[in-house]
Amino acid sequence: MSGDDNPLFQLFWTFALISLFAVGGAVAAIPELQRVAVEARHWMTDKQFADLFALSQLSPGPNVLIVTLIGYSVAGVAGAAVATIAMCGPTAVLSYFVSRWLSNARDARWPAMLQAALVPLSIGLMAASAWILGQASDQTWRAFALTVLAALVASRTRLNPLWLLAAGGCLGFAGLL
């Protein structure tokens, strides 16, 4: 079996590359994760991806859990480990060297300008993530209306989003969506 045919190699290579471009972490990389897992590699369907994302957000722990779940669905426990290491390893090494480099440039103005420039980029990536997940999960007008309502409630109140996810899950389980 060549490296290109080996699912563990595919997982490692895919997530190692995504990790280096995931400005803002795994949640900001959701559009690319969805594109790769669903459209490019055909590891899962849109619905399966949306379900894994919801599960990763309900579970305690870091947002990178979505990567672990994708790896698990592709190649079991070994796939989960490889995907997680590939998503975390390269960025951890890069972060170490960049932080050392930035600490040497404390008195320069460009680090603050760079950080300020990354804010709108991160916001845009998170908006793209919301759009991708909405397209995958809002298959009916009722589901779309619930998504809009949940977004409004989450943005206007201090209600824990887990309650909104639980309410959506109960409505789905009851067959109302």
In short:
This protein has 177 residues and is an all-alpha fold. 76% of the residues lie in helices and 0% in strands.
- Alpha-beta content class: mainly alpha
**Helices and strands, in N-to-C order?**
HHHHHHH
Shape: globular
Strand content: under 5%
> How many DSSP helices?
7
Number of strands: 0
List keywords for this structure.
7 helices, 177 residues, mainly alpha
Question: Can you offer a commentary on this structure?
Answer:
The chain has helices at residues 7-21, 30-40, 46-58, 65-103, 110-137, 141-156, 161-173. By secondary structure, the chain is an all-alpha fold.
List the helices and strands and how they pair.
Blueprint lengths: L6 H15 L8 H11 L5 H13 L6 H39 L6 H28 L3 H16 L4 H13 L4
Helix pairs in contact: 1-4, 3-4
